Amino acid sequence: MTQKNNRIQNHPILPVERGNPLKFSFNDEIFTGYENETIAAALIANGIQIFQFHHKDHSPQGIYCANGQCSQCMVMVDGFPRKACTEILQKGMHIQALDGLYSLPQKVGTNQLHPIIHKKAKVMIVGAGPAGLSAAIELGSHGIETLLVDDKNQAGGKLVLQTHRFFGSKELVYAGTRGIDIAKILSEQVHDHENIELWLNSPVVGVFSDHKVGVLKDNQQYALIDPEILIIATGAREKSLPFPGNTLPGIIGAGAFQTLLNRDLVLPGKNFFVVGGGNVGLIAAYHALQAGIHITGLAEILPQCGGYRVHLDKIKRLGVPIHTSHTILRADGSDHVQSVTIARVDDLFNPILDSAKTIPCDGVLIAAGLTPVDEFFQQAQQFGFNTYAAGDAQEIAEASAAIVSGQITAKRVLSQIDNSENDTQNIQNLENIRKVLSSRPGNIQVTERNKKREGVLPIFHCVQEIPCNPCSGLCVHHLISIPSDDIMAIPDFIDPEGKCIGCAQCVIGCPGLAVTLVDYRTDALFPFVTIPYELPIDKNDVLGHSYPVTDRDGRFIGMAEVVNLTQTTKMNHTSLIKLIASAEIAEQIAGIQVKSETPPSIQDFPELPIENETIICRCERVSAKDIRALICDGIHDLNLIKAISRAGMGACGGKTCEPLILQIMKEEGIPPQEVVPFSKRPLTIEIPVHTFLEPEQNDDETHE
Ligand code: SF4
Ligand code: SF4
C-alpha cells in the first residue's frame, strides 16, 4: 500500500512534539511510528483505517471510541489480541489486522503476579475530570484524606482535549483560559495537597455489594478500596447515532476525534462531515479546522444549532456549510466512509427524501449529544454506599458547571463529615452559579450599528445571551460591562468620552473570537480592522494580500488587505490580523478566509434509506431489523434480547447499543415501565485474569 503521513506538522495552539521514531510492521509491511504513541495513533498516522474484520460478516472495523471502552480497534500484536487505542507502540511490534475471532497462543508465558491491595479511604473520588479534580481540591484544602482515581495517564478528563478558551465566569471557573490549561491548573492544585492521593492509569472495574470498589491500579495490580464516602465523577459518554453505514471505518464520535487530533496529533481524515450542532459538534469542527481538516458541512436536525452562537459563527466564518433541519440518512463506502447522504426534515423530524443530497467525505464526526456515565453511581446507591454524583455523571453541562458541581459536592461531603449545616448558604450560592453556567443559550440581541465612524471602538459580534464574562474584566478603562450578578447579559460598551485606546485586549481575550476593533483614526473612509485568528498562519504569506472577509454569519461581504499580523507569547496563541477595509463593511467584518478550499461537489442520491440495515450493536453486529423482530415478538427485557441476539454481549458491555435498543422500543410503542434494562455487572472493562491471582493466596495481601 502507499504509505501516508497523516500527522499534524504544525498546530496553532498545541506544541508538536514526538518521541523517537521506531519501526513496526502492520500486515507484514514496515511503517514508522513514535515512542509513547498508541498503536491506533501510529496506524492512523500511516493512513491505516481498517483494524479488523468482523467475525460475523467480515465487515471492516475502524477506530470508534479511542478510549478503551469498545473493541473495534482490536488488532493482533505479536500473536496476542490488543486494543490499539490503549496499547502503546513498541519498537519491532508485529501487528496484524484481526480477521474474525482470535485464538490465543498455546503458551502464554509467565505473568508477574501482584498482591491485592486492600485500602481504606475517607473519601474516594472516581474520575479526575473537572468535577473530580475540583471536589478533591476542596476536600484537600479542608484536610480530608482523599483518594482520586482515573483510568487515564493524566488528570483533567476531556479538558486535556480542549484547545479553545472556555466561557463562564472569569472569577469562578477560569473563563478565557484554554481547557488544556485549566486541566494543568487544577492538576497542580491537586498535587499541592499532600492529603490527596492520585492514582492515574487506574480504572475502576466495579462497585460491589460489600461496599468495596475494585480498581486496577497502574493497570496491573488489583486493589479493593473501602471508602467511607464515594464520589462518582465519571463524566459523560457520547450517544451513538443509528443510520445505515454507521459502523464504517472513518465514522467516529467527537471524543475519539478530539483524542486523535489534540492528544495524538494525527489526522483521521482530510474531509470530514459533522453531524450535530450542539457545542460539542461545533467545537470539534473548529478543532478540525485548526488542525487543517476540511469540514464539508455540518447537519443539525433542529431548525437552529443548539450550541453557543459564537461557536457556530466561528466555523461559519471559516466557510463551513451549515445544514439546519437536516438529518443524516446514511453513510456509504466500500472499506471506509466515502460519502454521507443528508436530507431536510419536516416539522415532525421525518426526512424529506426528495431533498436528499450526497456529500463526499472521508470521515464523519458524530456529535449527537452526551449521556451521563452514571452506572457506578446507580449501583453504589443500590448497594447502600454513602455516595454522591458530581459533574456530568450527575447532570450533563459545560465543563465550567462541572467544576462548580465538584465544589458543591465536596462541600456537601464536608457538611456530612462535620455533621453541620454551616455551609448551606454557600452551597446554595454555588448551586445558583452552577445553574447559570449550565444554562442553554438565550435570546439574540443585535445592537444598532455605530453611525459616527470616528475614533477607535470594539465591535461585539457576541449577540446571544450565554454565561460568559471575561471581556468585562479585560479593559483597562473599564469600558466593557457585564453585570456581575447576570453573566448571561450581552456585553455593553460604554465610552462617552472616547477613552478607548485600541489596545485590543478585549479582542485577544474573548473566548468566542467575537470582538473586533475598528480604528477610524488614520482614515475614516478606509479604517483599520483588527480581528482575532486561531488557525495556522504565516505573516510572510499573508502580508499585503487581500482575502475574502465575512460578516458574523459567515456571509461574504468583500475583500480586505492584510496590513499586519501580530503573534506574541502573551497572546497565548491568538493572532491578531490587521486589515484595511472600506468603512461600509468595516464594522461588519467578523472573519477572514485566508485558506480557500473548493468544497467537494454535491450530487443527488438516488436510493432511499433502509433503516433496518442499521447496525445497533456494533460489537456483535446485530441489526435494527433483528432487534425489532424480537421486540415485536413481545420480548421487552434487554437481557433476553441479549441472550438471543448477542446485542450487548460485546466488549463495550452494551454501553453503545442500550440507548439505541431503548429507542427502538419507543418506536414500537413499548411503555418504558414494561422495558427491563440490561443488568449492570462488573467487570466494566476487560482485564487480564492473572490480575486476580495472588503470589500466595492471603499471605501477600497488602493492607493500607
Ligand atoms: S480596545 Fe482596549 S481600551 Fe478599547 S475597549 Fe478594548 S480593552 Fe478597552
Ligand atoms: S464578547 Fe464577552 S461575553 Fe461575548 S463571548 Fe466574548 S468574552 Fe464572552
Automatic annotation (TrEMBL):
SUPFAM superfamilies: 2Fe-2S ferredoxin-like, 4Fe-4S ferredoxins, FAD/NAD(P)-binding domain. Residues 490-520 form the 4Fe-4S ferredoxin-type domain. Keywords: Iron, Iron-sulfur, Metal-binding, Oxidoreductase. GO terms for molecular function: 2 iron, 2 sulfur cluster binding; metal ion binding; oxidoreductase activity. The keyword Oxidoreductase applies. This is Putative oxidoreductase. InterPro entries: 2Fe-2S-bd_N (IPR042204), 2Fe-2S_ferredoxin-like_sf (IPR036010), 2Fe2S_fd_BS (IPR006058), 4Fe4S_Fe-S-bd (IPR017896), 4Fe4S_Fe_S_CS (IPR017900), BFD-like_2Fe2S-bd_dom (IPR007419), BFD-like_2Fe2S-bd_dom_sf (IPR041854), FAD/NAD-bd_sf (IPR036188). It comes from the Bacteria. Pfam families: Fer2_4, Fer2_BFD, Pyr_redox_2. CDD domains: GlpA-like_Fer2_BFD-like. Gene3D superfamilies: 2Fe-2S iron-sulphur cluster binding domain, sarcosine oxidase, alpha subunit, N-terminal domain, BFD-like [2Fe-2S]-binding domain, FAD/NAD(P)-binding domain. The keyword Electron transport does not apply.
